[in-house]
Design a protein that fits this description.
One of its GO terms (molecular function) is alpha-1,4-glucan glucosyltransferase (UDP-glucose donor) activity. This is Glycogen synthase. InterPro entries: Glyco_trans_1, GS/SS, Starch_synth_cat_dom. This protein has 17 helices and 15 strands. The protein has 507 residues and is α/β, with parallel strands linked by helices. It folds into two domains: 211 residues, 3-Layer(aba) Sandwich (Rossmann fold); 191 residues, Rossmann fold (3-Layer(aba) Sandwich). A nine-stranded mixed beta sheet has the order 3-4-5-2-1-6-7-8-9, with helices on both faces. Strands 12-11-10-13-14-15 form a six-stranded parallel beta sheet, with helices on both faces. Strand 13, helix 13 and strand 14 form a beta-alpha-beta unit. The longest helix is centred in the C-terminal third of the chain and has 21 residues. The chain is globular and about 70 Å long. The chain starts with 17 loop residues before the first strand and ends with a helix.
């Protein structure tokens, strides 16, 4: 795999690149997870650099049309190949457009009543294979009817994994589409399609060589959309350099490590960024007392506000740890079940938890808060505003992930001077440097092994370091000075897109 992108002299466009991002979600229109945030921030950063980046997602019923008025761009789009595939016209769609005078990213929306408008949620339906195949097939059909043409299409995760497949088979010789390069972007390899890929029978194994079944063919649900995205894309990228290396190994490759190893010359890793206009303690509307790196003393006031929010004693001199996360096994919270209870039992500390997830983890934190009401506060549902309150008020943030393709929480927290406690994996390894008191380096506390003893040790190091305010303040300043802006990442993506064009020309 390649992690550092070299300048491309092979091929040069006279004009600025045009890029279309295709995804299942994009903030501010619809956001379920980190993908939605990336689909807002990366196109925005590319546009700031002068590139024409646009977004294409389904039109969900929950999108606020008063806030984001849409107008018709393409009518009666017919992604189905024949009447046999769509005898009742269920797949006939429209494409709507969001465009205003403020310079925001232009966005297109695939409007379909049956597969998007009627659904209360973005994910989790029995016919998701059909829903996402529709998005993938609609993409080239939409571009055939659009006057604006991208140089590069970026397909994101398994939901748009058939886009590379379609472009390099059915539309390979299309006079309007054949010059378009296709990038497949992996945000989380674990999710590959409609089934648990760990338990695929030999009969159901998808080699990726067969033609994509019709929308109404039951075999469609057996396809591994992720595999096909990797197989057919001109280049593949993941959301951190370390994760791009990890996924070529059996431990992290989720059954696709051999394929990814075969394509390693076209596999890249670029660390996600964060929107520093949003995650900025000096301007954040969710922060009661604004501050910056020169006025860090004001952060303690936000700590008191956070303690009051969670009905904890307002104490300046105890370390206050935060968790802002999905409470899942992937995020490493199995480690906390073994280690979290001894921490408040043995140390003078506090913990606040914001997030929802798997039932046994939520039950665990409920019991922990009940047992230690003076030390543990919980809010077991996701709350965007409250997460900013935690970033501003907590001393440290806990992210013990089993694996983490990129992670945004650690970067968001560091911009507020809140120190991350992380496992050395994926994007966490690329963004957090372990504190070394000997040479006064580091931006957080890092542990390597995924076990409760290693996690417990990192927590104890943080608690002990907090007892020395001058050392803690130095780490905070280094964390706040780290550059996680999307401008830096967007420049790397421009190189990636040029690499994709080069490979597409070579074939």
């Amino acid at each position: 795999m390649v992690n550092i992108l070299s300048p491309i002299n092979f091929f040069k466009r006279e004009s600025k690149l045009r890029i279309l991002f295709v995804a299942s979600e994009a903030a501010p229109f619809i956001k379920v997870g980190g993908l939605g945030e990336v689909m807002r921030s990366l196109p925005k950063a590319l546009r700031a650099l002068g590139y024409d980046a646009r977004v294409f997602i389904p039109k969900y019923a929950t999108i606020d049309l008063e806030k984001y008025p849409l107008h018709l761009e393409v009518e009666d789009l017919q992604p189905a190949s024949s009447e046999e595939e769509d005898p009742y016209g269920l797949f006939v769609s429209n494409v709507l457009k969001y465009d205003n005078d403020s310079g925001e990213t232009i966005a297109y929306f695939l409007e379909n009543m049956e597969y998007y408008e009627k659904r209360a949620n973005v994910y989790g339906y029995a016919d998701d294979a059909t829903r996402w195949a529709l998005l993938s097939r609609a993409t080239p059909e939409f571009l055939r009817r659009l006057s604006w043409q991208p140089d590069v299409v970026v397909a994101s995760d398994w939901q748009s994994g058939l886009i590379p497949n379609y472009f390099h088979t059915i539309y390979k010789d299309d006079p309007k589409l054949s010059a378009i390069a296709v990038v497949f972007s992996i945000h989380n390899l674990f999710f590959q399609a409609m089934f648990d890929h760990h338990f695929v029978s030999q009969m159901d194994y998808d080699s990726g060589q067969e033609a994509v079944p019709l929308f109404n063919d039951p075999r469609l649900s057996k396809l591994n959309f992720m595999r096909r995205g990797i197989m057919y894309a001109d280049v593949i990228n993941t959301v951190s350099p370390t994760y791009s290396q990890e996924i070529t190994t059996p431990e992290y490759g989720e059954g696709l490590h051999d394929l990814l190893s075969e394509r390693r010359s076209r596999l890249f890793g670029i660390l996600n960024g964060i929107d520093t206009d949003i995650y900025n303690p000096e301007t954040d509307s969710g922060v009661e007392f604004h501050y910056n790196i020169k006025t860090l003393d004001l952060k303690i006031k936000n700590k008191s506000a956070l303690q009051r929010e969670f009905n904890l004693p307002t104490r300046d001199n105890v370390p206050l740890f935060g968790i802002v996360s999905r409470l899942t096994d992937q995020k490493g919270f199995g480690l906390l079940i073994d280690a979290a209870e001894p921490l408040p039992e043995n140390f003078d500390m506090q913990l606040v938890v914001v997030g929802s997830g798997e039932g046994h983890f939520m039950t665990f934190f409920q019991k922990l808060a009940k047992k230690y009401p003076q030390k543990v506060g919980i809010h077991l549902s996701y709350d965007e505003v409250l997460s900013h309150t935690v970033y501003a008020g907590a001393d440290a943030i806990i992210i013990p992930s089993r694996f983490e393709p990129s992670g945004l929480t650690q970067m968001e927290a560091m911009s507020y001077g809140t120190l991350p406690i992380v496992r050395k994996t994926g994007g966490l390894a690329d963004s957090v440097m372990d504190y070394n008191p000997a040479d006064k380096t580091g931006t957080g506390f890092v542990f390597e092994k995924f076990d409760n003893r290693a996690f417990y040790g990192a927590m104890v190091r943080a608690i002990e370091t907090y007892r020395y305010p001058e050392f803690w303040r130095d780490i905070q300043k280094r964390a706040m000075n780290a550059d996680f802006s999307w401008t830096k990442s967007a420049s790397e993506y421009v190189k990636l897109f040029k690499e994709a064009i080069k490979y597409h020309v070579l074939g």
